[in-house]
Amino acid sequence: MKSTKGRVFAVAATAAVAALVFAGCAPAATDGTTVNCDDYSKYKGHEGTEVEVYTTIIDPEAALFKQSFADFEKCTGITINWNGTQEFEAQIPVRVEGGTAPDLAIFPQPGLLAKFAGKGLVEASADVTASVDANYSADWKNYGTVDGKFYAAPLGANVKSFVWYSPKVFKDNGYTVPTTWDELITLSDKIAADGKIQPWCVGFGSGEATGWVGTDWMEDIMLRTASPETYDAWVTHKIKFNDPAVAKAIAQAGSIIKNPKYVGDVKSIATTTFQAAGAGVVDGTCAMHRQASFLGGILASDNGAKIVDPTDTTTENGISVFYFPGASADNKPALGGGEFVGAFSDRPEVQAVQLYLTTPEWNNKKAKLGGWFSANKGLDEANVADPVNKVAVQILKNATTFRFDGSDTMPAAVGAGSFWKEMTAWVAENKSDKAVLDAIEKSWPKK
Fold it and tell me: Quick check: pTM over 0.90?
């Protein structure tokens, strides 16, 4: 794999920037405007220092990250060395154990982060902690906390609680976006009764990973039928996989996924890829498809879809998203994921960079560059151009609960094994809810 390293300024260039700062001059911003270095005053005093950021994020995404903190570098004299590699998960333990830990690491999942708590990771500074308390929900802070100690600040986010649809198809047929689960079922019944198009298109097919779509449905619905504490207990096996709360969730998922009036041939879901299923929203053969935000790029590339704002009801092949509703309009759980920035050094310049990445100022600057959003409360939706990402930001801001994808944090033998396999059998073989849950419970690794 190719590693992409961040830009490293020469000593002479760093000295020149420092001279500009001390002289009170304002360097040019990356967009050609003038930088007001007063905006970075609380990060000064570390001129000539370097901070390595180790991450899974490589070009072309890495280039936008480098651009987002270029003004910070110019005004503070801190050089951020971006070190992106697709070997991050394999190499981060090697580096930590070998005494060459990076200054900052961007962890793509909380489980990996937790492995380094007390083993190199340093607790977040008081300033970073205060900024996270002010700018993120407690759910997000908790994912960067291990054994009661706060280590890592949230960075980017992703959201899975979406239903893809065509605003034009909805408008043409008089359908209204539902805001509660009951409204979602009422709409599904109406579309089925009209007989023009199929209410839902569902596909579990994904090569060797077939079945993960079913686990996402289960996780999203568990957040809607059980408390956040029950969801956490399920994911960590503090309750059994065949607990009544889990049985309730799979039954509710089945009310859509295993309903022929809604999905047509249930058995075919196992062999239909999620991409092919989603294409039905583009060509108008089905009304709704539950899937994460990344689906839009696939459908645009493969099926000529146009990603539109939900208010655009005239564009042919236009697709957008609405929130996968909860039990009530006030119940707004969200399923997704995100990254977390943890420090292996308590040097002041490292703390300064970690702090800057928690601020609304940086989050808005990064979002303006496109293709990215976060759960930062200070992120202005006006700076998020992509219609789907804009809805995602709204979901995160309004979420009553946020939880990570549960199967990603379960033991691999379950989360990427029996859970996938049994959800596939659930549709392919019409395996009963009880038999599915019992089989997954039996597969959970013994301590």
Answer: no
For residues 141 and 340, the answer to whether their CB atoms sit within 8 Å is no
- Tokens coding 378: 């200070």
CATH superfamily of 4-159+336-402: Periplasmic binding protein-like II (3.40.190.10)
| CATH superfamily placement of domain 162-333+405-443 | Periplasmic binding protein-like II (3.40.190.10)
Q: Tell me the C-alpha distance between 214 and 422, whole Å.
A: 9
Answer for the pair 346, 104: CB distance below 8 angstroms, yes or no: no
**Nearest Cα to Cα of residue 404 among 252, 216, 184, 225:** 216
Enumerate the CATH 3.40.190.10 domain ranges in the chain, comma separated: 4-159+336-402, 162-333+405-443
- Nearest to residue 419, comparing CAs of 286, 237, 262? 237
- Separation CA 56–CA 339 (nearest Å): 10
Fill in the DSSP letter of residue 414.
I
Q: Is 435 exposed, middle or buried (0-12, 13-18, 19+ CB in 10 A)?
A: middle
State both tokens at 171: 């408008």
pLDDT one-digit tens code per residue, 270-320: 999 999 999 999 999 999 999 999 999 999 999 999 999 999 999 999 999
**List of residues 6+ apart from 195 with CB closer than 8 A:** none
pLDDT at 35: 84
Side chain identity, residue 38: D
DSSP 159-182: E--EEEE-HHHHHHHT----SSHH
Please give the average per-residue pLDDT across 385-391, as a whole number.
Answer: 94
Q: What is the pLDDT of residues 396-436, one digit of tens each?
A: 999 999 999 999 889 989 999 999 999 999 999 999 999 99
Cis preceding linkage at 60, omega within 30: yes
Task: Check residue 272 and report its DSSP letter.
Answer: S
Lowest mean pLDDT among 73-82, 234-243, 405-414: 405-414
Q: Is 53 helix (H, G, I), strand (E, B) or coil?
A: strand
- Percent residues over pLDDT 70 in the chain: 93
Q: How far apart are CA 384 and CA 365, in angstroms?
A: 10
What is the band of 1 on the pLDDT scale with cuts at 50, 70, 90? Answer: very low
